[in-house]
Amino acid sequence: MGPLSLPDEFDPAACLPAKVTENGVYHESRRGARLAAELVASGTPQDLRLAERVLDAVLACQERHSDDPHYGNFLWMAEDEAVEDLNAVEFNLEALIPMMVRHGERLPADAQARVLEAIRLGLREIERLDVLVAYSNIAMLDIVNTALGGELLDEAGIAARGYRKLVEWMAFTDQRGIPFEYNSPTYTPVVIRALKLLDELTRHSETRIRARTAAARLGLSAALHIHLRTGRWAGPHSRAYHPTVICETEPERLTFERWLEDGTLPAWLGDALHCRPREMQVDETAFPERDMSITTYHSRSFSLGTATSGFGGQANVMMVHYDRPGADRPGVLYTRYLVNDKWLGDFYHATDRTRSRNLIDEGRFYGVQSGSRAIGLYTPSRLSVTSSAEAALIFTDRAAIDGIWIGEARAPALPAVVGQDEVVVIESGAVRMAVRPLARTALGRSAPVRLVERGGNLVLQLYNYLGPEKRFWELNWPGAFYQGTPQCGLYLEVAERCQHANAPAFARTVSAGRLLDHTEPGFVYAGERERLWRVEYARDGALLGIEVDLMSWQLRRRWTEAGDLGWPMLASPIARETRSGEVIVGDARLRCGPEAGWLFACPERNRWVAGYHGLSPAPFELTVPGGRVSVEAMGTGTVVWDAGAVRVEAVSLAGMPHVEGGALQSLSTCLEGEHGIGH
User: How many CB atoms lie within 10 A of CB 594?
Assistant: First the structure.
């Protein structure tokens, strides 16, 4: 093999990859660390010589002043004057530590010593920062860097901190279902890759089992959100960067399939793609204390996802991916609340406050969804000096939209004004999307609803304000005029084109539903009462409703025809998770300790998989059609039933598994607390 092909953006003068922007040229330290690791892995004499120079450039980005509060961290860009992004140390060590574990001996002794000292300083900074386990992707980098770094340096105390933090992260997540940083096509892969590094490189067998168990559960969630027709990671997303939002990146299904091929995820997770209903709903909970749960509905040509509440400015709280036959990528509908006419930019270091590389959501959101129907309620996060405030529904690629209807009439040339009670129907690709505006607070003389083209997209704008710059005294709390937050709501329904004769027929169907949109009378708030906004939509025996308090902007209820909605850890036709000690999917049943347990079913292939995340060993029993697996007690681990062949992997297994109707194929376990240093 010859030398590694260098990336086009490699800057030989700086020995780092370069990013050219209109504000200058920047060199990212973490990309240099990754390149160094690739060069050392290549191992040719030419690459190893270059790797030393790249490593020198990376290490020059490390803060080496012992009196600096972030001694041992790294500059994000070589051009930065001080450490600002505290995550830089995690991303740099994520590359440097595995490089040294796998191939460190390929470097000269002096280079090895420099890198090991940089790792030692970086690990001290990581311990000082001690990032919250709720910050899922960075917490997982803390875990993998600390566990592997401690083993590399032969520092038992450091490694043990990493092992403990994995237990803590799983325990935090397993109280609710999915990671706090939920369903992110940008950051969930960071966690999955880190768990794979632990599986491959740690010497601590208990940590390997925990890492594989956590990866299986995260992989299951990811698989359930891959839309089969479009290949995209369906929303809602806690966080995602704009190229991912608008599908400029490769389909996430390809990434998932690579994870299956290279063993990052277990092969049985392929069943979650290939053996599932083409139409199904998936519900998961991240953190009910902050109303963080998600609903995703898959139809054959589209997916619709809605978050119960927003995660932050990079969230996609209401999102549709849909098939556009013959197009190079699917269509997307996503929502944002926008203030002062902000829009997208294309540069890294933004200087113009009205533009950035991501379109940040500046609103607070509550939503509810059942199947292909959803209600979304927005209010602005903050209005200071304001010239416009709007909820925006953004339909990508205006040129690929086949028809725009307002009520039962085709829209005139854009921009087009929409009446308050009119349903807007958008035809594109294989679907129709209907939007019915709900209550909006007019904060000025002009608060229109209109359709416009912007940046090549079709945008439905639901304004609270459009006018001269002003401040809103009445929105200040505490304040003498406050009567609640502004309202800006919408009802959204998505349908396959074949479901209705045409767009006017779809508009009539949506309009025929019974809509209750009621707001209690206003009053000047003194902190003592609620003012409720209640929205309910009913049609054909199905009901969907939500209620919020406008004074505190707090969710009060969500419901369907079946009653009030709860906070399921995982609910879908093929997989479920509970903490009740029992999980049932179809004809299969898992009984385990009263901690997180999940069950995945693929009866077509005679395959079932159960996971238990118990902190303490407990009895375990998996019953499937034609067979049963029972264990006297086990801690965290998985049991796979594959056409009667049984694989068991668990921490602190007590006794041999008993199998009826099949045979034990493999068994992997360890003693609780087994040490990893020197073994």
Answer: 12
DSSP 113-161: HHHHHHHHHHHHHHHHH---TTSHHHHHHHHHHHHHHHHHTT-HHHHHH
Cβ atoms of 489 and 376 within 8 Å: the answer is yes
Q: What's the predicted TM-score (pTM) here?
A: 0.95
Q: What is the DSSP letter of 7?
A: P
At residue 671, the pLDDT reads 59
- Residue 526 CB partners (closer than 8 Å, separation 6+): none
Residue 33 CB-density burial (10 A; 0-12 exposed, 13-18 middle, 19+ buried): buried
CA dist., res. 472 & res. 437, Å (int): 24
Query: What's the residue count for the chain?
Result: 679
Beta strands, E only, 265-317:
280-287, 292-298, 302-307
In the structure encoding, which two tokens stand for residue 253, read together? Answer: 């299904």
Structure tokens at 97: 């530590």
- Could you give the CA distance from residue 487 to residue 464 in angstroms, rounded to a whole number? 8
Q: What is the pLDDT of residue 345?
A: 62
Structure tokens at 415: 């921009």
Sequence-ordered strand ranges (E) for 603-662 = 607-612, 618-624, 627-634, 637-642, 645-651, 658-660
Q: Which amino acid is at 143?
A: I
Name every residue whose Cβ is closer than 8 Å to that of residue 48 and which is 6 or more positions away in sequence.
Answer: 39, 40, 106, 107
Distance CA 640, CA 66 (A): 51
Q: If residue 197 lies in a helix (H) or strand (E), which one and from where to where?
A: helix 188-201
Three-state secondary structure call for residue 617: coil
**CA-to-CA distance for 612 and 594, rounded, in angstroms?**
10
Cis ω before 7 (30° cut-off from 0): no
Q: Which of 467, 472, 469 is nearest to 484 (CA)?
A: 472
**CB distance 47 to 3 below 8 Å:** yes
Q: Which of 568, 567, 593 is nearest to 580 (CA)?
A: 593
Side chain identity at 212, as an amino acid letter? R
Give the gyration radius of the chain's Cα atoms. 27
Q: Is the dihedral of CA 164, 166, 169, 173 positive or negative?
A: negative
pLDDT of residue 351: 37
Neighbours of 437 (CB within 10 A): 22
Coil, helix or strand at residue 166:
helix
Structure tokens at 330: 């699917």
Tokens of residue 84, six digits? 């600002």
Task: Name the CA dihedral angle for 279, 578, 581, 650, rounded to a multiple of 10 degrees.
Answer: 90
Contact 499, 507 (CB under 8 A): no
What's the pLDDT tens digit per position in 606-641? 999 999 999 999 999 999 999 999 999 999 999 999
Count CB-CB contacts under 10 A for residue 360. 19
Helix, strand, or coil (residue 378): strand
Residue 43 has φ and ψ, to the nearest 5°, of: 80, 0
Helices marked H in 530-617 — which ranges?
Answer: none
Closest CA to 36 of 69, 61, 66, 67: 61
Would you tell me how many other CB atoms lie within 10 Å of the CB of residue 330? 28
Angle of helix 136-152 versus helix 109-129 axis, rounded to 10: 140
**Euclidean distance between the first and the last CA atom of the chain, given in angstroms as a whole number:** 34
Q: What type of residue is 589?
A: R
- Amino acid code (one letter) for 633: A
Distance CA 231, CA 369 (A): 22
What stretches in the chain show pLDDT beneath 50?
346-356, 672-679
